[in-house]
Amino acid sequence: MFKIAVLEYGVSYDRFREDFINSHTYHDDEDADSRNDHLVNLGRIGSLLSLREDLVRTYSSKGTDRGSFFTCMEEFMLEKDLRIRTRFTNFECHLTARVLKVMTEAVNDIPLFKRNLTVNEIDALFNDCETPSDGPLVANRNEVFVYFFSMLHFHSVISDRYQSVIADRHLVLSSSGRKYLTRKDLSTALSHFETVDSPIKARIDRWVVLVKKEMFQSGHDF
After folding, report:
1. Under a CB-based contact definition with an 8 Å cutoff, are residues 139 and 185 in contact?
2. 205-218: per-residue pLDDT in tens?
3. How far apart are the first and last CA of the chain?
């Protein structure tokens, strides 16, 4: 929309910013979860458009895929010195026993890995960002794996830094079993998977909603 309105038709940036925010203020979902998620997302985009026109112009020239967008938002939301000093080490979540049970059912039903995982292994993966001692985890399908994690992030179950955590801590091997998934692998797989029509997306979406519902019922803070 920025490319068309501002770069192609010459609409002023300020007018584009206001029109974009106003045209995305309302939506048809009625449940509180969806409304809250929408406000969070719109607030972040509104702040980006208001405070960092430079980032909007820079990243719009690089491409419009999901990976490029996440990189732009990461640069916008994180302190520069923090990104230089630290490596992201965890998913910033603490899943209770009840949530872990649902998460385990989800991971094994999809399935996310080449083998089924136990609740203890899911606990180690999500709460401690550690892999099983008896061998590394191998993604069943790279694109399915990263889409599941992207939806967990979308629903505020895990941090938006999940790709960095997975890559930096060498948590999961690619479906080939020959190398650990990198940020580039994850970003590329996610961008490709979002362009295809796959029935497994609906299964993943249902499971993620159940996970988030259990988190609310367990009294998690967001």
Report:
1. no
2. 999 999 999 988 86
3. 31
- Measured between alpha carbons, how far is 100 from 117 in angstroms, rounded to an integer? 11
The whole-number pLDDT of residue 2 equals 85
Residues 6 or more apart in contact with residue 160 via CB below 8 angstroms? 70, 73, 74, 77, 153
Q: What is the pLDDT of residue 80?
A: 55
Cis omega (within 30 of 0) for bond into 199: no
The C-alpha atoms of residue 16 and residue 57 are separated, in whole angstroms, by 13
Quote the pLDDT of residue 81: 45
User: pTM for this one?
Assistant: 0.62
List pLDDT tens digits, range 65-80.
Answer: 777 787 888 888 875 5
The arithmetic mean of pLDDT across residues 128-138, rounded, is 88
* Pick from 40-44, 132-136, 173-177, 205-209: least confident: 132-136
- CA torsion, ordered 133, 138, 139, 140, to nearest 10 deg: -120
78, with CB counted inside 10 A (0-12, 13-18, 19+), is middle
